[in-house]
Design goal:
With 300 residues, this protein is α/β, with parallel strands linked by helices. 39% of the residues lie in helices and 18% in strands.
Length: 300
């Protein structure tokens, strides 16, 4: 890919910071969306909940990537925090999509974050991008999140939805909490351990987003997950092998529901997602297996 100007919302988050480092290392100009006064031409002021974007700062951008959103696991899911989760994604995406659509020369592509929560509970059933949305809060939020990008699509901008799974990384996300527990010998399966976790290494997540930016023939939803999702029991065993620690502890489902409230469904639920469209597009995973993904995270 030739040197490009790429705007990133959520540039300070786990995925966003890794993406901006990767782009900058390859000589691309990265424009960060910030929630304060912009300092310099490589920052753009925005207020996602207030649906404000300084669209002039996006002039000349070849791509806009939206990875902004409050952390799903940061707080207990009270009604107030569920509203925060939704608004930070839906309102922010709508504001960005409208800003993109308003430009006299829009970017070539708008990559909008989404999540495999779109599919809801799938049990043992394997699903890909052809599957309909599921039930529950996460599913309905993801549907609204993707629908909010409509202004960019209607303006003729190639729009891609990156439905991301559980990102394996040492800092941040689910594994940012799991690694310390397992290193201390306190790790173990959650509930009966039979629920599927659709994971992806941070390296492959960034590489996949860049693939979606670069390929001019790709649009619509793409699952960003490793080719073979595993059960929580299998992942727990892999954590033990990689870290050389016992995995004797078990977090009972009842205790998780008391401790986490509605969010426990995200931990105990089974979402068996495969990246059919990503593989068909020719993307190659560097760390397709869980042990390789874990070792890659520990080297970061």
């Amino acid at each position: 890919m030739e040197r490009s100007r790429i705007a990133v919302a959520g540039a300070s988050g786990l995925i966003g910071s890794a993406l901006t480092r990767s782009l900058a290392a390859d000589g691309h100009e990265v424009v960060r969306l910030v929630r304060r006064e912009a300092h310099g031409e490589n920052e753009v002021c925005w207020n996602p909940e207030g649906q404000y974007v300084d669209a002039t700062g996006l002039l000349g951008c070849d791509a806009v990537v939206n990875l902004a959103g409050a952390g799903v696991g940061d707080h207990r899911w009270t009604d107030a925090y569920k509203k925060t989760l939704r608004d930070s994604r839906v309102l922010g995406t709508a504001a960005l999509a409208e800003a993109v659509a308003s430009l006299p020369e829009p970017p070539h592509v708008f990559v909008s974050g989404s999540a495999i929560g779109y599919y809801g509970e799938t049990g043992d059933r394997e699903v890909d991008e052809k599957a309909p949305p599921g039930d529950g809060f996460l599913s309905s939020m993801c549907v609204e999140w993707e629908e909010a990008a409509a202004p960019a699509q209607e303006a003729g901008v190639r729009t891609v939805f990156a439905r991301t799974g559980l990102v394996v990384a040492r800092e941040g996300g689910a594994w940012g909490r799991l690694f310390p527990l397992f290193k201390a010998g306190l790790g173990g399966r959650m509930g009966d351990g039979g629920q599927y976790w659709s994971f992806i290494s941070l390296h492959d997540e960034v590489a996949a987003i860049r693939h979606l930016i670069d390929r001019e023939d790709l649009s619509g939803p793409f699952n960003l997950t490793a080719p073979q999702p595993l059960t929580n029991r299998e992942i727990t065993a892999a954590m033990g092998r990689v870290l050389h620690r016992p995995t004797l502890f078990t977090a009972p489902a009842s205790a998780l529901r008391v401790a986490l409230g509605e969010m426990a469904g995200d931990v105990l639920g089974s979402v068996r997602v495969v990246p059919t469209r990503l593989l068909e597009s020719g993307f190659s995973f560097a760390f397709p297996g869980i042990e390789d993904a874990l070792r890659a995270a520990l080297r970061q």
